[in-house]
Automatic annotation (TrEMBL):
Its EC number is 1.1.1.290. CDD domains: SDR_a4. The keyword NAD applies. It comes from Acidimangrovimonas pyrenivorans. This is SDR family oxidoreductase.
Length: 287
């Protein structure tokens, strides 16, 4: 097979990519940690591999492209901890992609960042991602791998929209003055990854986000308007009851630039703002 993608941690974003590639004749091998998830992937036409647990070397030898979506842990990047030498020896790979996060930029008090902005992560998750990026870059330099890093903003898409909570009456508009987030529809992640595979630029880093950073309460309000339901209650961030994880997302505020994916990869976003994205999600749900 001429084009074989080995997708490590074949989750939400990678599955969207596979749905674009497989109709074009690509063969996709996806790793997952459970036999139950492996059965789901098989039903989608993906060659599933439970890993860790089974040998990676045979599928790595067949792959022409490698994508890692696996998040770092307290010890660093688990993929490189388990398979660094095998990946380093895979000199036949035409393209290697690593999915990171815009959290590596840290807090910029609502200011703009781009791929050249120094990394100053403030959260534990952001610091771990920055460390993992450096590990992958060091490996790529050492082994000559064609590494491309993708820094993803907040991901939404089918099954990950705000409508269910708004309908259930459990949505809240958490207000923190000056807070803005960038976000990206999963279909746009998939088209950027595909475009990168067609326009190789080893060492490149790309921000994946839409054109319209916005306060989180604005998205909830728009979802309610689309559904014709009352606006969910507004709550002050300072006094709102939130899990530590949810609260940590508000520790950083920034606007992320996406010029590079347009200028270098020729991307025209399918969903340039949350308005188009939410409208499409609602249309899919009602269909």
């Amino acid at each position: 097979m001429d084009k074989v993608l080995l997708s490590l941690g074949h989750g939400y974003s990678a599955r969207a990519l596979a749905r674009r590639l497989m109709p074009q004749g690509w063969h996709v091998i996806g790793t997952t940690r459970s036999a139950e998830k492996a059965a789901e992937l098989t039903a989608e036409g993906v060659e599933a591999l439970v890993w860790p647990g089974n040998a990676l070397a045979p599928v790595l030898a067949r792959a022409t492209h490698l994508l890692s979506s696996i998040a770092p842990d307290e010890q660093g990047d688990p993929v490189l901890r388990l398979a660094r030498d095998q990946i380093a020896a895979a000199g036949h790979l035409r393209w290697v992609g690593y999915l990171s996060t815009t959290g590596v930029y840290g807090d910029h008090h609502g200011g703009w960042v781009d791929e050249a902005t120094p990394l100053t992560p403030a959260t534990a998750r952001g610091k771990a991602r920055g460390t993992a990026e450096a590990e992958w870059q060091a490996l790529a330099q050492e082994a000559g791998l064609p590494l491309h890093i993708f820094r993803l903003a907040g991901i939404y898409g089918p099954g990950r929209g705000p409508f269910a909570k708004v309908r259930a009456g459990t949505a809240r508009r958490i207000v923190k003055p000056g807070q803005v987030f960038s976000r990206i529809h999963v279909a746009d992640i998939a088209q950027v990854l595909e475009a990168s595979m067609a326009h190789l630029n080893p060492g490149a880093i790309y921000n994946l986000c839409d054109d319209d950073p916005a306060p989180p309460e604005e998205i909830i309000a728009h979802a309610a308007e689309l559904l014709g339901l009352p606006l969910p209650p507004e709550e002050d961030f300072a006094t709102a009851e939130m899990s530590p994880m949810a609260r940590s997302f508000y520790a950083e505020s920034k606007r992320v630039r996406n010029d590079r994916i347009k200028d270098e990869l020729g991307i025209r976003l399918l969903y340039p703002s949350y308005r188009e994205g939410l409208a499409a999600l609602l249309a899919e749900e009602t269909a």
